[in-house]
Automatic annotation (TrEMBL):
It holds the Pfam family Peptidase_C93. Residues 1-25 form the signal peptide. This is Predicted transglutaminase-like cysteine proteinase. The keyword Signal applies. Keywords: Signal. InterPro entries: Transglutaminase-like_Cys_pept. It comes from Consotaella salsifontis. The keyword Signal applies.
């Protein structure tokens, strides 16, 4: 019964997203981008190792949100969240920061890299799958995957199996990959009125 309910809820969200106006509950469906910013050091080092993953590739575009594409997003998000055991880079590699494709364990950036990789191999355009750096309500940094669709931008998160519109997540959005170049990053102007304590 729970599985059926979640499936119905997922299909309802797809229908609502496709039919919705540019904003949902008064919030923007797309992030406001502010301009070029620095590439995270972990991603820079990742690009030195996986140069092909950081070159512009394919036409720019967004994902057409259908029941099939939504189901694939849910499948990949849950599969990776379930398969990978959360551990810090310090525990795994003995260093504070290292971005890598995980096999059995990893931290938030590793979850994102694997989801991005899997979805791109399913035919989703790279320009619609953007690694995004956010700040949690605790003040800690975190990484999620922003999925750009024709119905708005959605977030795949290792802390949540549910896929939400970006504006309905409890994060402050800081920066993300540029749509036209995976090795370039763009700052995000997140001026939503969130109750996030002392996070600035």
């Amino acid at each position: 019964m729970k599985t059926i309910s979640r499936s119905v809820a997922a299909m309802t969200l797809v229908a609502a997203a496709v039919a919705s106006s540019p904003s949902s509950a008064g919030q923007p469906s797309r992030m406001m981008l502010h301009g070029p910013t620095s590439q995270p050091i972990g991603h820079y080092e990742f690009c030195q190792q996986y140069a092909d993953e950081c070159r512009p590739s394919g036409p720019l575009g967004v994902i057409k949100l259908t029941s099939a594409t939504w189901s694939k997003l849910i499948e990949v998000n849950r599969t990776v969240n379930t398969a990978i055991i959360p551990r810090t880079d310090q525990d795994i590699y003995g260093v504070p920061e290292k971005w890598a494709y995980p096999t059995t364990e990893g931290d938030c950036e590793d979850y994102v890299l694997l989801k991005q990789y899997m979805l791109e191999r399913e035919g989703f355009p790279r320009s619609a799958l953007l690694i995004t750096v956010v700040r949690q309500t605790s003040g800690d940094g975190h990484a999620v995957l922003t999925v750009r669709t024709d119905a708005g931008e959605f977030i795949l998160d290792n802390l949540d199996n549910e896929i939400l519109p970006w504006a309905q997540t409890p994060y402050i959005y800081l920066k993300r990959q540029a749509e036209n170049n995976p090795s370039r990053w763009t700052s995000i102007e997140d001026d939503r009125n969130l109750l996030v304590g002392s996070v600035r």
